[in-house]
Design goal:
Elements (H helix, E strand, L loop, with lengths): L8 E3 L16 E3 L2 E3 L3 E3 L8 H9 L13 H10 L5 E4 L3 H12 L6 E5 L6 H13 L4 E7 L2 H10 L3 E4 L9 H5 L7 H9 L6 E4 L6 H8 L4 E4 L13 E4 L2 E7 L4 H4 L9 E5 L4 H18 L13 E3 L6 E3 L3
Helix pairs in contact: 3-4
The protein binds NADPH dihydro-nicotinamide-adenine-dinucleotide phosphate and ligand LQESDW3C.
NADPH dihydro-nicotinamide-adenine-dinucleotide phosphate binds next to loops.
Catalytic activity: IMP + NH4(+) + NADP(+) = GMP + NADPH + 2 H(+)
Protein name: GMP reductase
EC number: 1.7.1.7
Length: about 325
């Protein structure tokens, strides 16, 4: 098996088929809706909040609201009152079951539910998928996070409509250091490995450091890319603003950090400061333009044309050119 990460891969251009990059369509169909970009901000407290969720839904982007210190039922009700789709996160504990029951009792099926725990290849996730499918059969269920083909096969078999791949590649992640496990350092090849067996969409989660990594994720099998650090630090980002040495930063912390948990127990995340980088809407427009350019380099006109390109691995034992996935 080849082991590589984003910075060791370059995609190879194919003959251009468009007159202008504006002809390239970066949108994606995901769970029955079409979104402008194959990108979703991480469901973390310093990345997304209610206001951003509303804005993303109103402007044609996918979002997943986080699940911390939040009344999911109120959130879903308000999104629906605004005529917007609802996309929530759940864990696997008793209060999460109660949320599903209450949503079902009130006839408030969210369009998307993401079961979001650190070790998603677990019986607890199987049971939660089954509970959601019984109570809220209309909801599109995303389950994770996982790192192996076996896990993808199990989650799909248990009824997940999409899986989320990535254990430990995140910028504020310390899972690798604390546990010795994960896809940190080889996330892109883990994605490729998982995509080989997937029959449903995959969300590649974590490790994106530049916009070109979005096209690389699509090339290796993702339908959607979850991004934390590149989205944290915008003017609208929910993290607190911190001034240091005359410069302004926003805090970005892991969901399994003591900052998020409120206690130092099973900590697998840390806090960093992200330089403030302007408006989120501008970054999304730049991302769309960059993905359009990726599609044009792929010799295509639509996002999935990126899947057709060859690639090279730079350096290391696996270095070489690859004609097919
Ligand atoms: N993508 C990634 O690499 C990672 C992401 N995270 C994020 O942090 C947040 C908190 O995650 P999490 O701690 O799972 O959520 P929860 O605190 O809600 O825990 C979920 C359940 O899974 C159990 N659990 C957690 N980790 C393990 C494990 N390694 N083995 C067996 N059982 C486990 C917990 O029990 P108990 O606590 O008693 O063990 C609990 O019952 C989530 O948003 C998650 O996505 C966290 C780590 C890695
Ligand atoms: N191991 C941990 N992973 C975490 C934690 N909180 C969030 N995450 C994951 O990171 C990505 C974002 O990665 P980035 O490289 O884009 O910044 C996020 O979507 C989660 O999957 C954590 O505390 N520990």
């Amino acid at each position: 098996m080849e082991i590589f990460d984003y910075d060791q891969i370059l995609l190879l251009p194919r003959k251009c088929r468009v007159q202008s990059r504006s002809e390239c369509d970066a949108s994606i169909d995901f769970g029955g809706r079409r979104f402008k970009l194959p990108v979703v901000p991480s469901n973390m407290k310093t990345v997304v909040d209610e206001a951003l969720s509303r804005w993303l839904a109103q402007n044609g982007y996918f979002y997943v609201m986080h699940r911390f210190d939040l009344d999911n039922v109120v959130f879903v009700r308000e999104m629906k009152q605004h005529g917007l789709y609802a996309s929530i996160s759940l864990g696997v504990k008793a209060p999460d079951y109660a949320t599903v029951d209450q949503l079902a009792a009130e006839g408030l099926a969210p369009e998307y539910i993401t079961i979001d725990i650190a070790h998603g290849h677990a019986d607890t996730v199987r049971d939660m998928i089954r509970h959601i499918k019984a109570k809220l059969p209309q909801s599109f269920v995303i389950a994770g996070n996982v790192a192996t083909p076996e896990a993808v096969i199990d989650l799909e078999t248990w009824g997940a409509d999409a899986t989320k791949v990535g254990v430990g590649p995140g910028k504020v992640c310390i899972t690798k250091l604390k546990t010795g496990f994960g896809t940190g350092g080889w996330q892109l090849s883990a994605l490729k490995w998982c995509a080989r067996v997937a029959t449903k969409p995959i969300i590649a989660d974590g490790g994106i450091r530049s916009h070109g990594d979005i096209a690389k994720s699509i090339r290796f099998g993702a339908s959607m890319v979850m991004i934390g650090s590149l989205f944290a630090g915008h003017e609208e980002s929910p993290g607190n603003t911190v001034e240091e040495g005359g410069a302004l930063y926003k805090e970005y912390y892991g969901s399994a950090s003591d900052f998020n948990k409120g206690e130092y127990r099973h900590v697998e995340g840390k806090r960093i400061l992200e330089p403030i980088k302007g408006k989120l809407a501008d970054t999304l427009i730049e991302m769309e333009q960059d993905v359009q350019s990726s599609i044009s380099y792929a010799g295509g006109t639509k996002l999935m044309d990126v899947r057709k390109v060859n690639y090279v691995i730079l350096g290391g034992d696996n270095a070489g050119e690859h004609l097919f996935m």
